[in-house]
Amino acid sequence: MPISLRAAALRTALERAVDAPARLLAVEHGMRVYATAPDPSDTAAWERAMSALRSADRWGSTTASGVPEIWAEVHDEVSP
Predict the structure, then answer these.
(1) What is the pLDDT of residue 12?
(2) pLDDT for the residue numbered 80
(3) What is the value of pTM for the model shown?
(4) What are the beta bridge partners of residue 32?
(5) Which residue in 30, 37, 29 sits closest to 53, CA to CA?
(6) pLDDT means over runs of 10, the chain (80 residues)
(7) For residue 41, what are the CA distances in angstroms to 5, 37, 74?
């Protein structure tokens, strides 16, 4: 599935923020990007990550995989 420029930019921003690959998941209303959460003491990485997260329609965090992750969702992938 091709992704929008907005979803691609969000993925790139999160990858740069955490210095690790991010993964994409198609969700009901768009695309969700997951990335490993920065180290709690890395203020600079968290500032970059939060900047990227704020550009999304929804964002949050999870530890469902056993590793702390941040996620962000964009809704511009939805067809009318």
Answers:
(1) 96
(2) 46
(3) 0.86
(4) 25, 73
(5) 37
(6) 84 96 90 95 96 96 91 74
(7) 31, 11, 28
Helices 5-18, 43-54: crossing angle, 10 deg rounding: 170
pLDDT at 28: 84
DSSP string over the chain: ----HHHHHHHHHHHHHHTS--EEEEETTEEEEEEEPPPTT-HHHHHHHHHHHHTSSEEEEE-TTSS-EEEEEE-TT---
Whose tokens are 């768009």? That residue is 30
Backbone angles phi, psi at 67, to 5 degrees: -120, 130
Identify the sign of the CA torsion 56, 7, 10, 20: positive
| Cα pseudo-dihedral 46, 51, 52, 54, rounded to 10 | 120
